[in-house]
Amino acid sequence: MQPLRKPEATGLIELPAPRRSGGKPLLDVLSMRRSTREFRGEELGAQTMSNLLWAAFGVNRSDGHRTAPSARNWQEIDIYVAMHDGTYVYEPRRHALHTVIDEDIRAATGMQDFVGAAPVNLVYVADLARMDAQDRTEQRFYSAIDTGFIAQNVYLFCASEGLATVVRGLVDRKQLAKVLRLRPEQRVIAAQSVGFPAA
Hints:
Layout: E1 12-14, H1 26-32, H2 46-57, E2 77-83, E3 86-91, E4 96-101, E5 120-127, H3 136-161, E6 164-168, H4 173-179, E7 186-195
Antiparallel strand pairs: 1-4, 2-3, 2-5, 3-4, 5-7, 6-7
Helix pairs in contact: 1-3, 2-3
């Protein structure tokens, strides 16, 4: 299993090309989909991370559309990836990770004990500046729905690949926004832990 490369001087980790075929049949995956809160400490390899992020919200068409639907094609959800060596934001068009923080903030991504030990914590952040809806309630509604589509893609990918995952709403959003150095128009919606199952 090839590990993720360290960031280049630009702060980017170029991911290997994602595997866009294979996996288990959909009905088998749906029967295996579940939430799991116990993880081994083993890190995910570079190819697995590449496949995971592409499945979550990667570009799957030449026109820039994604693997998950997005209201009015706002594509307002960014995926922050918290791991032991730092936190990154996924850049779908480049299929790369851009360094945000050079320290382990996994424990700050949730309020449950297992969060700090999960190898990967995905944090779904809505950038409201990308949404032309003026009504704040409408912005929250659509960004929550779009996050749900992405989180379900992660669930299905994990079921297909034998990984464990759980989506989490128990997050101190204001504190996490400070840790991630978000702009005022960015909002933490939810988080999702991913790793190898403990047993």
